[in-house]
What we know:
The protein has 17 helices and 22 strands. It has 485 residues and is α/β, with parallel strands linked by helices. The chain folds into two domains: 273 residues, 3-Layer(aba) Sandwich (Aldehyde Dehydrogenase, Chain A, domain 1); 191 residues, Aldehyde Dehydrogenase, Chain A, domain 2 (3-Layer(aba) Sandwich).
Amino acid sequence: MDDRLMHRREFFIGGAWTAPAGGDLLDVVSPSTEEVVGEVPVATAADVDRAVTAARTAFDEGPWPRMTPAERADVLARAATVLRGREAEIAAVTVDEMGCAISQAPRSQTGMVAPLFDYYAGLARGYAFEREVAAGDRAGLVTEEPVGVAAVIVPWNAPVTLAAWKTAPALAAGCSVVVKPPPEAPLSGYVLAEALAEAGVPHGVVNLVPGGRQVGEHLVRHPGTDKVAFTGSTAAGKRIMSLCGERITRVSLELGGKSAAVVLDDADVAAVVPAIVGGAMHLSGQVCGAHTRVLLPRFRYAEAVEAAAAAAAAVPVGDPHDPATVVGPLVAERQRERVEGYIALARDAGARVAAGGGRPAHLPRGWYVEPTILADVDNSMRVAREEIFGPVLCLIPYDGEDDAVRIANDSPYGLAGGVWAGDPARGLRVARRLRTGSVAINGVHPPFPHVPFGGFKESGLGRELGPEGLRSFLEPRSIGLPPGL
């Protein structure tokens, strides 16, 4: 790995790489080796202040919000080109900093980044940022204005992808941004900042200051920010929402999930269940939209448990640098302890570990947990109601279609979900009944980034991606038009 990519000494503020105000460094630890593989400086309050001031100046006085949408789109399109050329670097850094299996990097870490900038470049060119409205003898002009300075706070499981989900539409809208990458995986965000600078984003429009919770809270509270865009845990989202409420700061939240995969009684269990298991193992289960509650018809439950256990046991677990690996380590030791704690809770509550449940014997180093299948799970158990964020599936029996829908909707979350059916039309009817932000039918997911992503209930507030993602960074304004204009 290029040492420059793994050992950083500066922040990106005001269009330049600038020295930190403080001297603290944050070690980046490989989840697969438990060794330090990189480091970044830790932002202080003064560093955050400088970043917000740069973004504020760029928005209030700079050219970016005053460019035409087509001019901004040209920059976004160039950013897409630059980012395509740096996908291998982003993937390699992410494997080292958060343990993503290299086989899955194109899907989770790089595959949507450049296309997202291309998408918002195209959307900006054709979006109606202004429209005239007439009512009788009166007329008005409705304009969509950039919200201002956006604080972008992203998690460690897909740091560049999720930063792009927010940064691309914010830039298309004409906003400036301050990005706070996660302390567990801060390095890949630097590549994004470099790419945007190379693409010609004006000075101060994009700023990057890594740090932990205190840095994020200072950024959220900062009077110079107009909007907070956050992806992370529901607990952190509640805190951010309360802080934003103090200043009526605009906020969008993409939070946790406990999504259900409903397997209907006409589905091919032998084919469907292994597919669900494989999907839930993506990023070692560290995905907010993972389908981790598998709802199965009771009369086919034993068959499904057997199929799930066999599928989990066959998942390759190992070094994330190995292209054959599907499940790599969890991001941190605390995350492994969290997952192991939930498995213990499941046993105590009466659930049965049908596969996995421990640490892989062939991997003495690294924060690994075996792909785990929990059977005999009731939807009232904590493992069925709380987000585990690891390679753990809960298999829950149901009695009839209405019961399946009831169980699927009986959750504090509503982020994603799936329906598997022999009859796709029946699958669509059931999907319409699920109180969740996105639904896949027979493994077919909606065409992101062209459609919105986000959740009902405690899974978040607002939507990302699609035109809705752009509108979340815009403020509508109405202007009365006197006769003659």
